[in-house]
Specification:
Length: 190
């Protein structure tokens, strides 16, 4: 995978960790149908804020991110294994994880189609994958997408239905939920 010209996340990691270290995980927990005995993968998990909030609900937790700066913080959290990898090239065997979560990160993956295939590959049969992603059909998210483009972040935002199709094409049972926030939830069952 080509290295981005500038690692924005390495620069913002300390601020990100300070401002977002306690994430409310009630919706994530509900959509993942926790607790479970199996392992959780937090893909694009950055500083591990989501995995840390869910760690007691699973058999084990792994945070995967491409940014070394973000992973430095994830690796310091108790019970979290931090692994540097791109979502398109996950270093795990097929069917490894009972639960996978991607929170506000899918648009940062370099190749979302390949990332979807890899996430599906490592999801165990009967497992659940939950993606919380800013809904680019909303004007505020369009503004955020423009700002990320100006900052050369190479983000690509897809409508929730497009993300859902990436997993339906692999045989997933997919549900898209929208609420009163700027985010949508894509819930995939294998």
């Amino acid at each position: 995978m080509p290295k981005p010209p500038f690692d924005h996340f390495k620069l913002i990691a300390p601020l990100y960790e300070a401002l977002t270290h306690r994430m409310p995980v009630e919706k994530v927990r509900k959509h993942l149908e926790l607790p479970t005995e199996g392992w959780l993968l937090d893909a694009g998990g950055g500083t591990g804020r989501v995995a840390a909030g869910l760690r007691s609900e699973v058999g084990g937790a792994v945070v995967v991110d491409y940014s070394e700066g973000m992973l430095r913080y994830a690796g310091r959290k108790p019970g979290i294994r931090a692994v540097r990898a791109a979502a398109e090239f996950l270093p795990f065997a097929a069917d490894t994880f009972q639960r996978i979560v991607v929170v506000d990160a899918f648009h940062h993956f370099h190749d979302q189609e390949e990332a979807a295939k890899e996430l599906w590959r490592v999801l165990a049969p009967g497992g659940r994958l939950v993606i919380e992603e800013p809904d680019v059909t909303r004007w505020l998210v369009k503004l955020i997408a423009l700002m990320e483009k100006i900052l050369l972040m190479r983000s690509r935002f897809y409508p929730p239905e497009t993300i859902a199709r990436m997993f339906r094409s692999q045989g997933g049972q997919v549900e898209v939920l929208r609420g009163d926030t700027i985010s949508a939830w894509i819930i995939i069952k294998k």
